[in-house]
Amino acid sequence: GPGVPDGSIRTTCPYCGVGCGVLATPDGRGGAAIAGDPAHPANLGRLCSKGSALAETLGLGSRVLHPLRRNDAGGYDRVSWDVALDEVTDGLKTIIERDGPDAVAFYLSGQLLTEDYYVANKLMKGFIGSAHVDTNSRLCMSSTVAGHKRVLGSDTVPGNYEDLDSADLIVLVGSNTAWCHPVLFRRMQQNRAQRGARIVVIDPRVTATAEDADMMLAIKPGSDSVLFAGLLVHLDANGLTDATYLARHVSGYDEALANARELAPTVASVAERTGLTPVAITSFYELWGATPAVVTAWSQGVNQSAQGTDKVAAILHCHLATGRIGRPGGGPFSLTGQPNAMGGREVGGLANMLAAHMGYSPAEIDRLSRFWQAPNMARHEGLKAVAMLDAVAQQRIKALWVMATNPAVSLPRADQVKAALGSLDLFVVSENVLSNDTLSAKPHFILPAAAWGEKNGTVTNSERRISRQRAFLDLPAEVKPDWWIVCEVAKRLGFVEAFTYGGPDEIYAEHAALSAFENAGTRDFDIGAHAGLPKRAYDALKPVQWPAPAGQPLGTPRLFAQGGFFTGDGRARMVPLAVPALASATSEALPLLLNTGRVRDHWHTMTRTGLSPRLSAHASEPCVHVHPTDAARFGLIEGGFARIANAFGAVVLKVGFDAGVPPGSLFAPIHWSAETASHARIGAAVQPACDPFSGQPEMKATPSSIAPV
Ligand code: SF4
């Protein structure tokens, strides 16, 4: 098409959940020119700083290129694929026979493609018979999944990105969208410039997003659900609810309203709990109430919380009460962190889900077992990420296979996690890179997995849009796709027929057929239009929003404007909310709340973005951001070093003064690790307290001390 370079391949960016379309034009020397894809609906040609620098991150300098086996001296020997696969299989077999299937686990990643994820889940949950498959999506948006399932009945995002272009009011809760979903933030800014939309930011910290907002509500950490409970009370008291929608499509409104009145009886009580002024609260409530085309979008400030599920429910309640859901320009919207968090869930990538968004009811287990002809179906939920690593530490899980993620940096209590990994009887890692903190826990096998540019499959972004991520580089040396590695082990375990696939196209065709299997519109995830999709059509697949049931290949832009929730009776269910509280309170010894998050130009544990000098220029080293009054109180010097400590661990970081960080808080970035900057691995000082419904840890409020070093 016009503006599309010759020889370019359409693919998607490997970073955030915006899921931007990318045009990659290989240079024939292992590199490629990168541009935004003007035809992709997520970004319409735009890319952010991270996406634009992708070309600088290609190359084999830091890659693992051959299977490696740990030797007795703690070093690694190159072995053939046959030896590596045989020995990994033997190790799994021995442990399964000795200790049962629940002694083995997979820890996966929102970086995997849907096809990789599908076969890993199929192997563990249908054939090995353990449900211990969890993923770093647990750290990212599992509270949204649980909130959606509790209230909407299914793991469904109702709206889409076009709503951000046509909303009159966009409320961003706990989201530094300008840095973490930059292309979407640009769409919001364009809406404001062209149509006069207003942007409100709710966040304890004055972020780059907040600085650009029309209104900023600097809320006390952990009090979001009070603010939205108060909004529900306001909507009801002012006759702004949609009685028809409530009567037809929602259960539990009276109870939810009574609960909201207890949590937030008056604006004054909301002010006391949230730390906001009554004037600010009232003007926010009036603006929200008066604007039918309102999108409330949220991200990790809501999700990474011991009450994340309640926070999501509190937001959903306000949209349901006004019928502002699934309408152009109006609805609740979760901004997914990772490129394929959603695709992973579609195939059962969380320990509490089965494939195709099914759960562990006897009927669902039976349905899946018949579809797969599975000999060993898992029959109960598996362990979620934090609990899974506890089980590793307690040696209840004895074999763990980590794919495409770096838990020794990213999980809470990262030091203990790293020690636990080192104690496994069998520890296998599928990786791109030759060194990171998880690899320094010394896996028995390091399996060289395909990286972005070499991988071929599908991903699903924040708006339920499935896109092809296409290979534009050859697989180097002995590197293999993740799906292939898993299938080879499955075949060696004796499951030859169920794991013989000619390519990712055949896996996708099966996944699509499963989504439609005995699903007469009863389950949200249905891509029956792609069941048995031939390879040619798979290769040419255009981005499409699920559900795309048989006969509806163009997909579904929005859901629920006319009800139709996947709850059995079709009605959404409002739920009572707990009294808002943080998991742990500050004390004299631990007087500050440690908040963690992202910087603009790095992604996760920097194994890719760290390769680009341009990206590292924006924030070249990790800093703890401290309000100047706290700096004075604790004797900190700007540019000096400080030790942040609590019962879980300690880190040492350079001090940066930041008046946007509220007094009583610290902010530190998640990206750096012991491999990239010693003592800067902030996960070491993050508490493991989790939301009771989602199991997502509260990573933004760990009571901590700080002192100069
Ligand atoms: Fe788009 Fe996110 Fe990639 Fe930036 S990081 S180009 S916003 S997908």
From TrEMBL:
What GO biological process terms does the UniProt entry carry, in alphabetical order? Answer: cellular respiration; nitrate assimilation
Iron as UniProt keyword: yes
Q: Where is the 4Fe-4S Mo/W bis-MGD-type domain?
A: 6-62
- Species: Bosea vaviloviae
Family as reported in the entry's similarity comment:
Belongs to the prokaryotic molybdopterin-containing oxidoreductase family. NasA/NapA/NarB subfamily.
What this protein needs as a cofactor is:
[4Fe-4S] cluster; Mo-bis(molybdopterin guanine dinucleotide)
Report one GO cellular component: membrane
Citing just one GO molecular function, the answer is: oxidoreductase activity
The alphabetized UniProt keywords are: 4Fe-4S, Iron, Iron-sulfur, Metal-binding, Molybdenum, Nitrate assimilation, Oxidoreductase
Answer yes or no on keyword rRNA processing.
no
Q: What is this protein called?
A: Nitrate reductase
